[in-house]
Specification:
The chain folds into two domains: about 280 residues, Glycosidases (TIM Barrel), CATH 3.20.20; about 60 residues, Chitinase A, domain 3 (Roll), CATH 3.10.50. The relative contact order is 0.14. Helix 4 packs across helix 5 and helix 5 runs parallel beside helix 6. A hairpin with a 7-residue loop joins strand 7 and strand 8. By secondary structure, it is an alpha/beta fold. The strands form three sheets. Strands 1, 2, 3, 4, 5, 6, 9, 10 and 17 form a nine-stranded mixed beta sheet that branches. Strands 11, 12, 13, 14, 15 and 16 form a six-stranded antiparallel beta sheet that branches. It is built from ten helices and 17 strands. It is globular. About 35% of the residues lie in helices and about 20% in strands.
């Protein structure tokens, strides 16, 4: 176990002791047991963002922009042969509707398009990033698309660089991309396009693949406007036990947002360049024994929903319809519910408030949601925005 892991466990062990004395569902403030993080607030508005999957039946014009500063169009993909950005006939119709649907909203939001996502083949990115020529082809095509459609920025979601060489090439890609954006802005006398990147929850990848590897923190610090750790999917259908989807704290492991954000800061990425990910969905399991229903309970498969996932709005409806037992877990700062052999982990108003307050008090740049259509009547989006101070 690393020194950092030991240090992170100390305040969490204190929390476990405190939990014995907590008889209500009220949360213990993270600031009571997070001495390694300075408490300071940002002087600027910050980022309150969300991804808008282009395939959903939810028009961008329906987004309540009071709760957001940036909306990502997700996803575009590079062509596997040329590495130019592919804009399909679907995108050619959908992107103008997305841009126009948000352009005249009040308040206005910034728009970015995201490249990649979980459904993209990671080897395409790896091959593209190997040499300067293909990186240049890719970069130039992203700028052309952004300018053609009127986006304010570009986001890379490479899930995930597979080895140390991929990480080194990613650093080169960030640098050359930023330099190209600066040149583009100078030539066209326009504001520079934003450059952001969605990344693993921690700066060092320990659990995906055989080779431990770290993100290029120095290149991120120099060339990105911000980086977005995906602080969710900590547990899911790949586990044969119930677990928390987006634990703020985990006294048993480093799979937590507390650890992940701390690792990014320790790696040298300034807090003001970190935008913390939050899920608007839960993970579900089928319990082996309905009478054993805590966190870590044995499971035999996925529960209700779509292949073990359930949107927040559907979780609330499921709980009400089935009279499910709802539990707030003070240690992980999260909710779970169960009824019969169904078990769901998710975030609700209180846990989202505490997580946003965590991001705010640690002077992070902001937060983002995956994804904007999964909320219920803007309940979570509103609470997060209020907790941020807007």
């Amino acid at each position: 176990m690393t020194t950092m892991a030991v240090q992170n466990l100390v305040p969490l062990l204190v929390l476990i002791i405190l939990r014995v004395f907590v008889k209500s569902s009220e949360s213990v403030s993270p600031d009571n047991f997070s001495p390694t993080f300075p408490r300071r607030f940002l002087p600027y508005q910050g980022v309150r963002a969300a991804y808008w999957p282009s395939s959903i039946d939810f028009p961008a014009s329906s987004i309540d922009t009071r709760y957001f500063t940036h909306i990502y169009y997700a996803f575009l993909h590079p062509e596997p042969d040329t590495y130019k950005l592919s804009v399909t006939e679907f995108d050619q119709t959908n992107i103008p509707e997305f841009i126009n649907g948000l352009r005249y909203k009040h308040p206005q939001v910034k728009t970015l398009f995201s490249i990649g996502g979980g459904g993209n083949e990671p080897t395409v990115f790896a091959t593209m990033a190997k040499n300067q020529r293909t990186r240049g082809v890719f970069i130039n095509s992203t700028i052309q698309v952004a300018r053609q459609y009127g986006f304010d920025g570009i986001d890379l979601d490479w899930e995930f660089p597979a080895n140390k060489q991929d990480m080194a090439n990613l650093a080169l890609l960030y640098r050359e991309w930023y330099e190209a954006l600066v040149l583009d802005a100078r030539i066209h006398r326009k504001p520079r396009l934003l450059l952001t990147s969605a990344v693993y929850y921690a700066s060092r990848m320990l659990f995906l693949g055989d080779e431990p590897r770290s993100y290029p923190a120095e290149a991120i610090r120099k060339y990105l406007d911000w980086v977005s750790p995906m602080c969710f999917d900590y547990h899911g259908s790949w586990d044969n036990f119930t677990g928390v989807n987006a634990a703020l704290y985990d006294p048993k492991s480093n799979i937590s947002t507390y650890y992940g954000i701390g690792s990014w800061i320790q790696a040298g990425v300034p807090p003001e360049k970190l935008v913390m990910g939050l899920p608007l969905y839960g993970r579900t399991w089928e319990l082996r024994d309905p009478n054993v229903h805590g966190i870590g309970a044995p499971a035999v498969g996925v529960g209700p929903g779509n292949e073990g996932t359930m949107n927040y709005k559907d979780v609330i409806e499921f709980n009400q319809k089935n009279n499910a037992k709802v539990v707030y877990d003070v240690v992980s700062v999260s909710y779970y519910s169960y009824v019969g052999d169904s078990w769901i982990t998710y975030d609700d108003v209180w846990s989202i408030q505490k997580k946003v307050q965590f991001a705010r008090s640690r002077a992070l740049r902001g937060y983002f949601f995956w994804a904007v259509d999964k909320d219920k009547d803007w309940t979570i989006s509103r609470q997060a925005s209020n907790a941020w101070g807007h």
